[in-house]
Each structure stands twice: as C-alpha cells, then as structure tokens.
Amino acid sequence: MAWYTIEHACGHVVERRLNGTKVLGEREAAAERLAEGPCRDCRRRERDAAAVEAMAAAEDAGDWPVLTGGERQVESARRIRHEAAEQVRSWEHGVDPERAEVVVPLLLRAVARRDAAAWWNDRRGTDWTRTLRAELTAAELERVEGWTRET
C-alpha cells in the first residue's frame, strides 16, 4: 500500500492510498485508471443530480402529492419514497403478469396517498410491498385474491 497523488479528469487533485504491488505495476495502473474519471465528490454529485432528476420525473408521472415536513425531512423522504416506488415496480417482474397488473397500480396508489415526510422516514429500509399492503383499503385488498393486511 502506498499513497498516490491523483489528478482526476474533473481537475481535482486527491491523495489516495492504493493497494497492489509496485513490481507488477498494479498501483500505477490503478492510479492511471482513477485519473481517467472524475473524483469521488464529483461522481457523488453527478449521481445525486441524476437521482433528483429521476425522483422529480417519477413524482410528475405519478401525480404524487408534495411531501410535508421540514426541509431535510422532505429531502430524505423523497429519496425513500422513490426507492419504495422503484421496489414496487421491480416487484412486477417476479410474479404472475396478471397479478402484477392488479397489484402494482394499487401499491403505487398507496405510495401516492402518503404525503407526510415523517411517515416515509420512519419506515426507511422496510419491505415496501408489505408496508404498502397495510396501507391498502378493504376494497383494494378485495381486488387481490389471497391478500389481507397481514399476509
């Protein structure tokens, strides 16, 4: 292991500790490879900007309500709500297509009903299919054969 000064493509200069052998040129190769791309901070900013863009598009497409709460609470809850919706959408690939046609829109409707940022933040990291199923109305549950609030 050794410390290398790497000038990234974005122009930032960063000190990095690289693993590998000097004899085989592994560290130098890693330093060159890292220099070809942006630094961690710039990659993080790009990723966050893309996530915000995706969340805004999903919110517009889903006609989701504006979240209520403090600024930081809302920011965090938007990310969580977006993750929940993505998990629900990906769920349709693992089940019978006819069942998915009924279930996925119902669960996305449950996503759209919750506008309190605190509700989303309190349920961070949960199984969204199960959590959102508990939010369905009795009439919605009747549309899905074999589903109850608990199962």
Account of the 3D structure:
The protein is mainly alpha-helical and 151 residues long. It has two domains: 2-38, no CATH class; 66-142. Helices cover 58% and strands 8% of the residues. The chain contains seven helices and two strands; from the N terminus they run ββααααααα. It has a two-stranded antiparallel ribbon with strand order 1-2. The protein is elongated, with a radius of gyration of 22 Å. The protein starts with a strand and ends in a 9-residue tail after the last helix. The model has no long low-confidence stretch (mean pLDDT 84).
By secondary-structure content and strand pairing, the structural class works out as mainly alpha
The first-to-last residue Cα distance is 52 Å
Strand order of the largest sheet: 1-2
How many helices?
A: 7
Oligomer: single chain
Coarse morphology: elongated
Give the C-alpha Rg: 22 Å
Helicity range of the residues? 55-70%
Organism: Phytomonospora endophytica
Protein name: Threonine dehydrogenase-like Zn-dependent dehydrogenase
Blueprint (SSEs and pairs):
Blueprint: E1 2-7, E2 13-18, H1 26-35, H2 40-62, H3 71-91, H4 97-113, H5 117-122, H6 128-133, H7 138-142
Helix pairs in contact: 3-4
Organism: Phytomonospora endophytica
Protein name: Threonine dehydrogenase-like Zn-dependent dehydrogenase
